[in-house]
């Protein structure tokens, strides 16, 4: 199992006290599976994704990535797991502005210790970015920047791709193209995909779907 999340609980402290967001959420993701996570705004989708990506820790419950538990690991070990096991795409593209397209991809691959130039060339070609590798992020459209962000997330060929509203800033046609590219690339690399989306239309293209409601999987 690529992701095995069990009985996750998470509350946030606010001025009004502790507010529960996740109250016993479990999910699994196997190789080659594509899973859509839907739910109303504020239902805890990003929180759940952050726990799975080892960007935050649950109050209770366990996340296993590729069979290894994140519980009890140091921040450094968690960061290492994240770099090697997970590719992340967010609604904001978060590219490094001072690096070119090619450098953004290579930087990520190097961080994970897996720089494979032939793969990066192929990835760039499949994402339709071959003519833009020397451009800086600010010289690209939103759709192009998101394609670079997808390339960066897959640069080290991680077993898991986690995408949080990756098409939230794009128009419908561009969103469709970007999702099609994500699906094509995860099929090619054999990665599992967990995609957070508000869109029923996009969720319908994935193999499975989970809906979060009031802290539970509905
Ligand atoms: N760091 C934080 N401190 C306090 N409350 C938080 C924090 N992060 C998130 N929350 C609250 O937790 C709830 C779930 O937030 P989360 O971002 O996970 O929801 P979401 O389903 O991803 O929402 P959206 O679809 O709007 O992005 C919200 O009520 C939010 O206000």
TrEMBL record:
Q: Which Pfam families match?
A: ABC_tran
* Recorded superkingdom: Bacteria
One cellular component term (GO) for this entry is: plasma membrane
For this protein, what is any one GO molecular function term? ATP hydrolysis activity
The entry's keywords = ATP-binding, Nucleotide-binding, Transport
Pinpoint the ABC transporter domain residues.
Answer: 3-218
Q: Which CDD domains match?
A: ABC_MJ0796_LolCDE_FtsE
The protein's matches in PANTHER family, at most eight in alphabetical order, are given as: IMPORT ATP-BINDING PROTEIN, TRANSPORTER, PUTATIVE-RELATED
Identify this protein by name: Putative ABC transport system ATP-binding protein
- Organism source for this protein? Aliiruegeria haliotis
């Amino acid at each position: 199992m690529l992701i095995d999340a069990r009985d996750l609980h998470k509350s946030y402290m606010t001025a009004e006290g502790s507010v529960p967001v996740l109250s016993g959420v479990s999910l699994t993701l196997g190789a080659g599976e594509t899973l859509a996570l839907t739910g109303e705004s504020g239902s805890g989708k990003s929180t759940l994704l952050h726990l799975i990506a080892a960007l935050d820790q649950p109050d209770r419950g366990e996340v296993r990535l590729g069979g290894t538990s994140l519980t009890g690991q140091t921040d450094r070990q968690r960061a290492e797991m994240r770099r090697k096991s997970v590719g992340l795409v967010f609604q904001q593209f978060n590219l490094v502005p001072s690096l070119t397209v090619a450098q953004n991809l290579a930087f990520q691959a190097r961080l994970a210790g897996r720089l494979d130039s032939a793969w990066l060339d192929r990835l760039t070609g499949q994402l339709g970015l071959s003519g833009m590798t020397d451009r800086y992020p600010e010289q690209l459209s939103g759709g192009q920047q998101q394609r670079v962000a997808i390339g960066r997330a897959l640069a080290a060929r991680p077993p898991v791709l986690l995408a949080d509203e990756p098409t939230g800033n794009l128009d419908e046609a561009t969103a469709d193209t970007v999702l099609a590219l994500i699906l094509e690339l995860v099929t090619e690399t054999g990665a599992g995909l967990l995609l957070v989306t508000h869109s029923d239309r996009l969720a319908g293209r994935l193999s499975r779907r989970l809906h979060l409601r009031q802290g539970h999987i509905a």
